Task: inverse folding
């Protein structure tokens, strides 16, 4: 690591605040997503403190929506944990890709910053790091902005979501679906990835039709992941 | 099985929080000891996209035409202009408009 690289990890009040402000526009959409979550969670019968606690402590929207899909009088905890792990497994790779910059921070800061990592602030700070710009403030301050707006949105969904008479007629049931689709299609695409997606989709649908309820996410994710490990892409895109 | 009332909900939130924390910390922790092999990286990378596809496939097949139109609109928009926020907004709008008629 050269000196210029070593400075990229700098984390101080100024760059945290700058990162916070930079992520506020995106956070407004995060709040709408949070509103949809808060509303959906009240509709499956979660009590209000639990909904806020879930958004504050789990802070991973797609897995929170998936938990609602599994909701009933009882929940099988192992399939729930596996579903949450599979949906959030991308954080493992995000953490690994940030390691070259995070390794300069003491462990407390290193793991503290990771508490606030989401797709949006990770993607933006990786772009900045790759341009040799300091982005630790963007990662941490931006993550705090997203976290606060996620909780705010959830709260709005709980208390004002019911003012929306028919969320389905306004398309609000599609917020998560459209968000996830935008995330997946916004990433890298090539023939190998598309075939992996087709295999994942087919495996997921077969599990959805023929296997126990809610196994389709884990089955589809594993099918795609295993194919990706067996049929590896070119090392240049890794 | 855990009841989804009272204390049970706390356990569910706690389990979800811990599993998510493992994913947020795990990659950094592992990297501090062993570099993630290229094969593992490919597995995680393929799985992270596949999990979203696995969530979406039944939604697209079992949903109504409004749901399908929303996903199609989002897909076309993101492929054309590569900006997620307008793509999401247009997808929701498409579902809303379709369901008004």
Result:
């Amino acid at each position: 690591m050269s000196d210029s690289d070593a400075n990229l990890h700098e984390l101080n009040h100024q760059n945290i605040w700058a990162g916070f402000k930079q992520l506020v526009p995106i956070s407004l959409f995060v709040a709408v997503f949070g509103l949809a979550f808060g509303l959906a969670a009240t509709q499956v019968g979660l009590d209000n403190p639990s909904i806020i606690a879930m958004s504050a402590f789990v802070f991973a929207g797609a897995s929170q929506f998936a938990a609602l899909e599994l909701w009933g009088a009882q929940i099988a905890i192992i399939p729930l944990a596996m579903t949450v792990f599979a949906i959030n497994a991308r954080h493992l790779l995000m953490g690994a890709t940030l390691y070259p910059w995070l390794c300069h921070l003491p462990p407390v800061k290193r793991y503290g910053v990771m508490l606030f990592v989401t797709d949006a602030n990770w993607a933006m700070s990786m772009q900045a790091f790759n341009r040799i710009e300091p982005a630790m403030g963007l990662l941490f301050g931006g993550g705090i902005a997203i976290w606060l707006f996620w909780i705010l949105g959830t709260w709005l969904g709980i208390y004002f979501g019911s003012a929306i008479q028919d969320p389905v007629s306004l398309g609000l049931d599609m917020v998560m679906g459209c968000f996830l689709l935008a995330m997946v299609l916004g990433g890298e695409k090539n023939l190998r990835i598309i075939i992996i997606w087709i295999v994942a989709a087919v495996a997921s649908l077969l599990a959805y039709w023929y296997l126990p309820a809610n196994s389709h996410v884990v089955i589809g994710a594993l099918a795609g992941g295993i194919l990706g490990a067996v049929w590896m892409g070119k090392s240049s895109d890794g | 099985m855990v009841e989804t009332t009272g204390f049970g909900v706390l356990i569910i939130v706690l389990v979800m929080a811990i599993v998510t924390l493992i994913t947020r910390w795990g990659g950094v922790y592992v990297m501090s000891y062993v570099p993630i092999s290229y094969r593992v990286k490919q597995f995680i990378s393929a799985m992270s996209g596949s999990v979203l596809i696995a969530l979406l496939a039944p939604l697209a097949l079992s949903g109504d035409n409004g749901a399908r139109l929303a996903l199609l609109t989002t897909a076309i928009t993101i492929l054309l202009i590569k900006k997620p926020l307008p793509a999401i907004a247009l997808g929701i709008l498409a579902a809303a408009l379709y369901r008004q008629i």
User: Anything to note?
Assistant: Chain A has two domains: 3-187, 188-238. Chain A has a mean pLDDT of 87. Chain A touches chain B through 96 residues (CB under 8 Å). Chain A is about 70% helix and 0% strand.
